[in-house]
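Hi V.,

You were right to ask for the full record rather than a summary. Here it is.
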Amino acid sequence: MLQDQVAVITGASRGIGRSIARRLAALGAYVVLCARHREDLDRFASELCSAGFRAEAFPLDLTRATQIGALAQSIRDRHSRCDILVNCAGIGQMGPPLHQLSPEDWDRLMAVNLRAPYLMIRAFAPLMIERRYGHVINISSLAGHNPLKNGAAYSASKWGLNGLTYSVAEELRDHGIRVSVIAPGSVNTEFGGGQPANPDVRLQPDDIADVIALLVQQRPQSFVSEVLIRPSTKP
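Predicted structure:
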C-alpha cells in the first residue's frame, strides 16, 4: 500500500490519467491531479475525496516551466516529498504527412509530449533525490517503437520519450529512484479527438492503471524499465 506517499499525475482529468489517479488514491496515496481544466479537476478531486480518498487539484499548463516550478514548490512546502510522478498528459495528431505539418503543430506536440515530461522530472527529481526514494513513470506508446504513417511527429515524440526514460533511469538509479515507461497500444479513450472505433476490443484505461499499481509496489531492489501492452484482439 502507498500510505503517506504523494503521487503527482499529469493528464489526470480524463482517460488514462484519471484511471491512474483513482488507482493510486485507492492504494492510499495522496494524489495531486494536474491538467489544464480547473472545473474538471475540481470535480474529480471532490469525487475522490467523497469516496474517502485524499486528493487535490492543481490546474496548470504543462508547456509553461514557471507553472511546473510553482507546482513543485507548492508540493515541497506542503508535503516535503514526491514519491510517485506519472507523466501521462499527451496530445495526438494523425495527419497530414510530415512535409505538410506546420512548425506550430510540431512545436505544440513536442512541448506537451516530450518537453513537459522533461520539465516535470527536472522539477521533482530533486525532491526524490533528497529522500533517496521515488518512482517516475512515463506513459509512452507503441508508436514509439513502430513507424506510424501520417503520424511521424507523434511517433517521434514517443521515440524521444522512450529514449529520455531509458537515460534518466541510469542517471537516477544510484539515488534510489526508479524510472519506467509504459507503452500502450490502442486504448479506449477520446485521445486525439472523437470516439474510437471498436472500443470493446481496445485496451481500457484501467488496464494501464493495473500496470502502474504493479510498478509502484515492487520491492525496492528491482524495477521494471519498460512495459509494452497490447489489446488481446487487434482493433
